[in-house]
Design brief:
The structure is a homodimer. By secondary structure, the first copy, chain A, is an alpha/beta fold. In chain A, the strands form six sheets. In chain A, strands 12-9-13-14-16-15 form a six-stranded parallel sheet, sandwiched between helices. The first copy, chain A, is elongated, with a radius of gyration of 30 Å.
């Protein structure tokens, strides 16, 4: 395998000159955006007032991004390719904007930024300017599906976009800073999950400019030999483009891209001809070594700038106040020779404009990068076909996620032809009881498959890898390009992707404000193997705090559901899969649990989001109860019902109302969340003055935070997970956190005015039960029979 | 480079037989822990009642872990090595417990689990049993610094432990499941930061058993050739140990470990002799391919178990109820020949016990794995030496983190000889204004150093890599082995390590309950480049939610500080560095900001955690004010003071109290947090009934959550970050989120009963200012002069 591709005559002299001019135009526009308020074409000498008062933007990575963009344009035109561009170094926002402006996309979307001198002035001014556009590639940037914020997710987004898009090539630029992150280091292994017969291609371009903010980078300083071995080890064929002299670099890049797209075509043809389905092809990737701040000032104030980290942001900083600096900027910009690039009217010269692809082939206009344009509704079956017949209430035991698995299996089947639905998870689909989907599909796997392997195939639609980062990133890429999916995960470990969730929620918030960005499917989490049933894995696996993070995001973006049983999970799962532009979090157990609601009841209850369970209440109609027992989450619901049962048997005259919450954000005030209950409705459920014992699935503080504006808030007493846990029995987990039936019943007695004295015997009995439990589990290693075998009493 | 090390005569026959017996003993004890309640030595046929009712544990990885442990014991004895064992596959808890029991450490720490038949019975029974020990390697496990929970951090912990421990070798077992995670994939690059002259060695052992829960693994299925290239690419010398036949495997492993420790010695001697300081040495690492569930049942119920994922947890499951299953278990355990391993009294036979190292050389007793034993107090300078002279209040401008940088520089200097303090950060030490530390140290870097590089050296004590995961993991490993450190990070991106923080906080919670675990230094975060000053990077860089996650943890573990200026940051930073067994989060800006408190005032204020700023209040002593203006965080403090200034000028008769909060958890009730103010103290500050306008740095809900129990809670009106942001000016960021001086002043007027009508003109003026601001920034690209130039008025 050779290191550098032979560059003989990849481009004619004329072609080379044209592509170099195009590149210079992009570089010119990039610098202009960072610096200029006015005088965009340098028709007059640069003056202080032409310079922005605050210089915000990143030059360092930009010329390399522009170089790649120009060369991809050539290939797209030459081969009529369908390509999108993922800009890992998101700081290179000026480059992305410059290129989409040059190709015309920008002005089509934002007519105000027209293709003339005045448009160019506005283009420059708006960049990183109040009321303008962000400094990074962002939702506002045409052609982007990748926010240039947090680093690490470019490549995994690229793979997500390529799955089930056989004609698409996703060019993915990975900066050498980003390449140091964990998620990116794992993302290279995504090639083991991409099937050339049905998926598109990903072309990773590792863009090494050698430096991050103030340091060299690991891969930038590594030798070619180590890099070659590293990427061969990851399963790629690395091709190197190295240098700084533009003409030589153009020839190298053109030849390398020709070779790369040849190779991609070969791999795809071979796979699609049915000639070979064996193993994981060795896809090409490019290592592009070019100077940081390429073509920018070599030195400023006697300090090295080009090809060093000082070129990272604004290479010459005081152009408004310092004439010498301003001169450096002017020389730099004039060095691109704007008269050679733009006509008298400020438009890009026609021979250069002709280098950009046309219509949807332009990377800024490719509909894959505005996935809502391509999104087809997911076909879903009728949830009633999967309903659990609950018989006598609480007597039937079912595994909620298993029931949902049947629904997902048929959803998978209904959309098999459309090939636009996948399920993602870190090796836990079966463990999370969604195994029914394997009746109709497999796990995708491109490495060797052994005869004894189970449900592994090249064509599987279940994506399993022991990396929550990859699951999340693939799914994001898949959704952003207009498809559908579900991510099932152990509840505790979803925190691994907290920051990715953050970034995606931010993306959605901004896209909802952009009319031209069309809605995409919601990002759906099924969090299972949850805190209360991690009794076997212990404390490290017990954390219900992801929803706290979610609740911080903009209300229109997020929903949190805690279905108490299988039929309600069916409603919630189905509902979430049909929504768009949201993040839906569903928390539901996978263990056998009693079933409470018929399908009709579940539909009604879930649609309301919150409601009184009259069958579990003994208050008389329209009379205020003595006590409200509220719950959210499957285990808390069971413990609450068991507590209600205990209380009713011990103190029959106590009037108890039982309330269940499915849609957690319904607890919030209506002015805080669109699903929030109106105050009257809330008071009608929780009363205005009675004690509420609230058994909640997660950290109790969230309930206080959601309800602090409610009239009865000071009577709401919440129990939840308080960071007590270990390897023990399921019931002992609730006891350790004082969320169990006995603690709930005891608190109920203590909170109802005057009851404590009257119900002394019951109090003593419940306390006795806690002591009995303590001894029993430590002796027998399992829960007391009366706990294990408890069922809701017949009416 | 050869693939397999020649195995000729690494072990004599006698040695081989002994080590194999030792391994069998560990395997026997591992199986016993998973399955048995009684009959530990199989002195009678296995009966139903000998089996645990719930079988919780993981067999699959355990025999391999035991194999490695036994062989490391041999090397430790032969070469008198100082080695700790990091068990990446934390599920292998039974193996870690078995080995520390065999070497005697376990019984020394837990005398109840004695080295005899009764002790063995208790050892078995306690495992994964209520009131017993967790199923994973955990704080309870001797010799462990690594919780076996979330996967991905074994190798980064190993490197953290090795830094500045020149005589230590950290053997780090990485499972092939874990190897799929992002953080682990990046961790291999830690070799670029380890200096053989001053640091210890890390020996990574990639333990490929081929499967995770229900799937093959990426590296397990990869060919040797790809693996070799991958790890060579990462900069290692990979050595392979492959097979399943025990005798052959023992010889391979022994020979390979001999070679590995030779090579480690060579590298260290060369570096320490001063002969070579060039480049990054090619450290050896081992790829151990052994079957999953090695030596366990080959098949159960006709299905492949050994060497397949079905061996992951409990390979034969129904041993209590199914006689056939019980027979498989009994045959399996008897296959290890317990009579050959344990004497009549149940003790390990003396010739086997002699294979374990003695005293502190035992990996379970190595003090590095109980870092508090080795921890020396950090030497710190007097903060008064760095105090900012504030002159006229609010007139001096300083960058808080820069001032802290001076203190850190001298702390670094004072501990240079002890070599037990490092600073960690993702390429942001300089950007976060801590650059003074480079007066006395550099960034560590083992790849090539160019003449024009700045503050890069082999001996630097600042660790910079563009991976929050690596920074966090290195620091954790460094702290867990008894040293000190600080992690400075952009506030938004600290969410990347949310889950690592979770796991570390859980570790601390449990270790505090174990008398034999000695306190370690706190994990200190300095979050800067915070939400209000990410105006230049935009929305993706704006997130203050990490503290919400932190506040969910056990109160004794966590502290959150929001110092309003440089002197208070000095107090807080100094305080945090001197605490132990905690996680301290400090949020402080790096931009020039007005200074409010003299050092004396800062000390008093920070020690109280919360207080009235009388100099900024105009209430008369002992008289209740009309209004409380509260703030937490530097930018909110400035906006609050500016609002107070506006209000006092516009409505001189309004009696305003100004309150500042440094120690956020002081807001909580005393029964919820040890720093919580007593209710009377809280009421004395916030009043029982006056409106409180609270300007908070982060998401406003947190303040409600912390104060919901307080008498005056319903009058507390919080403003904070509400997910509105973009690239704009600093002041515009506060306006977008309605945390600016004008919004604060307007709300104050609206909330004080009867004031709205009286202060109509002021209201109109403030609203006018908001409109004026809106237009001004969009025209000029910077904030209005009256905003930029505002200063606190002279007294």
């Amino acid at each position: 395998m050779e290191k550098h591709v032979s560059t003989a005559a990849a481009l004619t002299d004329a072609e080379l000159t044209l592509i170099d001019r195009y590149w210079r135009a992009a570089n010119y526009l990039s610098v202009g955006q960072i610096y200029l308020l006015a005088n965009p074409l340098l028709r007059e000498p640069l003056k202080s007032e032409h310079i922005k008062p605050r210089l915000l933007g990143h030059w360092g990575t930009t010329p390399g991004l522009n170089f790649i963009y120009a060369h991809l344009n050539r290939l797209i035109r030459a081969r009529d390719l369908d390509v999108i561009y993922i800009c890992g170094p998101g700081h290179g926002g000026p480059g992305m904007v410059a290129n989409t402006y040059l190709e015309g996309t920008y002005s089509e979307i934002y007519p105000d930024i027209s293709e003339d001198a005045e448009g160019m002035r506005r283009l420059f001014r708006q960049f990183s300017f109040p009321g303008g556009i962000p400094s990074h590639a962002a939702p506002e940037t045409p052609g982007s599906i990748h926010e240039g914020g947090e680093l690490g997710y470019a490549l995994v987004h690229a793979y997500g976009a390529a799955f089930d898009n056989p004609d698409l090539t996703v060019a993915c630029i990975v900066g050498d800073g980003e390449a140091e992150t964990g998620p990116l280091a794992a993302s290279w292994h995504s090639n083991k999950f991409l099937n050339p017969a049905r998926d598109g291609a990903v072309l990773p371009i590792l863009h090494l400019n050698g430096y991050k903010i103030a340091n060299p980078t690991i891969l930038g300083r590594a030798g070619d030999d180590d890099l070659r071995r590293l990427f061969e080890g990851y399963g790629y064929e690395p091709l190197f483009v190295t240098g700084h002299e533009p003409r030589d670099m153009h020839q190298q890049m053109a030849a390398t891209l020709d070779r790369v797209f040849e190779r991609i075509r070969e791999i795809q043809e071979q796979a699609r001809s049915g000639k070979s389905t064996a193993g994981c092809p060795r896809w090409p990737m490019i290592v592009l070594r070019s100077p940081k701040g390429w073509t920018g000032p070599k030195e400023v104030d006697g300090k090295k700038v080009e090809d060093f980290w000082r070129a990272h942001q604004v290479p010459v900083s005081n152009c408004r106040g310092n004439e010498g600096h301003r001169k450096i900027l002017e020389d730099w910009m004039r060095g691109y020779d704007p008269e050679d690039l733009f006509g008298a009217d400020g438009r890009l010269k026609p021979e250069l404009r002709a280098l950009a692809p046309a219509g949807k082939r332009r990377m800024g206009a490719n509909p894959h990068a505005n996935g809502g344009l391509l999104r087809k509704e997911l076909a879903v079956p009728d949830i009633r076909d999967y309903a659990v017949d609950i018989g006598k209430r609480g007597s039937v035991v079912a595994q909620s996620t298993e029931i949902l698995g049947h629904y997902l299996r048929d959803t998978m089947k209904l959309n098999a032809k459309a090939a636009n639905f996948r399920i993602f998870g870190p090796d836990e689909t079966e463990s999370n009881r969604l195994g029914s989907v394997f009746d109709v599909t497999d796990r995708v796997w491109m490495e060797d498959i052994e005869p004894y392997d189970v449900h592994l195939s090249r064509d599987g639609r279940v994506m399993e890898v022991l990396s929550e980062h990859l699951c999340q990133g693939w799914l994001e890429g898949y959704l952003l390009t207009g498809r559908h999916g579900l991510f099932s995960c152990y509840e505790a470990f979803i925190h691994i992707i907290d920051s990715m969730f953050n970034q995606h929620a931010k993306w959605l918030k901004v896209t909802r404000e952009l009319e031209w960005r069309k809605p995409i499917s919601s990002l759906n989490y099924l969090l299972t193997s949850h805190v209360w049933r991690q009794d076997h894995n212990g404390f490290s696996h017990q954390d219900p705090g992801f929803v706290d993070l979610v609740a911080n995001k903009k209300a229109d973006i997020v929903r949190i559901y805690l279905p108490p049983d299988a039929n309600s999970l069916l409603w919630v799962g189905d509902h979430c899969l049909r929504t768009y532009d949201r993040v839906n979090v569903i928390v539901a157990g996978k263990q056998p649990e009693p079933q409470w609601l018929s399908m009709d009841e579940a539909v009604k209850h879930c649609e309301a989001g919150i409601g009184i369970w009259h069958w579990a209440s003994n208050e008389e109609d329209t009379i205020s109860p003595d006590l409200v027992m509220a719950c959210a989450g499957d285990v808390p619901t069971m413990e609450t019902l068991a507590a209600v049962d205990l209380l009713r048997k011990a103190i029959p005259e106590l009037k108890i109302r039982t309330v269940n919450v499915v849609d957690l954000l319904a607890l919030q005030s209506r002015d805080q969340h669109p699903h929030g209950l109106a105050d009257e409705a809330f008071d009608a459920i929780f009363t205005a003055d009675k004690p509420v014992i609230f058994a909640y699935h997660g950290y109790p503080y969230l309930i206080h935070r959601l309800t602090y504006k409610r009239a009865n808030h000071e009577n709401i007493h919440v129990r939840g997970f308080v960071e007590e846990g270990t390897t023990t029995t399921p019931f002992d987990m609730t006891v350790l956190n004082e969320l169990d039936r006995y603690h709930l019943a005891i608190e109920a007695i203590e909170r109802v005015p005057g009851l404590k004295e009257k119900a002394k015997d019951a109090l003593a009995a419940f306390r006795g039960k806690l002591a009995e439990h303590h001894n029993y589990v430590r002796e027998h290693g399992e829960d007391m029979p009366e706990v294990r075998n408890w069922t809701w009493p017949a009416a």
